[in-house]
């Protein structure tokens, strides 16, 4: 009897957590391939229903431990964590001085992270469903999501050209073939801001290598920030109040758009 009661409490708590994790975000289904569909969390700007305009898109990609089918886990780290807390990512573009509001999409991979062809499909579906400013599509993620971000901006010139800027954090090692594709990133002019922790040398070395491989083709296109962290702390780095050289990552993204 006591075991049954305990199981009921656990089930109730899990249900509450799932609702809580989607409190400020909407769940949608995303087709990842002809055979697989999975969930994603979406947040639209607060004036989306009343303003007839297009919005910048942030595509946020989670780490390996958040893969699967439980969307509530996405809210444990990164951008979904802050959206779940009611934070706003609205930011002023340092270039034109205007306030921008983002469409934020956080797709969940069934395992590891989303592959380039899956991300291309996700983009197609999101652009068809929402009013996206396709000159301002930004991609970011941590760990396996950092891997997915770098894979996307190197896989092909066609896919690279869909992004205006990328922020890969603590990226896992990308596929060997993509190590030779940073020319795509440079030709497409995708501005990149890499993050890596001083106590996670493997991931920091990845970040530095990928930035150097980009700058080899176009100097200054990629930069690296070394944080005093191990492989962690993405809540802090995605915090809208976090500043590096006086600028949030969201303000930094808005400087860049595709022509």
From TrEMBL:
Classify the source by domain of life: Bacteria
Q: Which SUPFAM superfamilies match?
A: alpha/beta-Hydrolases
Annotated GO biological processes are:
proteolysis
Keywords, sorted A to Z = Signal
Peptidase S9 prolyl oligopeptidase catalytic domain sequence ranges: 118-172
GO MF terms held by the record: serine-type peptidase activity
Q: Which Pfam families match?
A: Peptidase_S9
Q: What is this protein called?
A: Prolyl oligopeptidase family protein
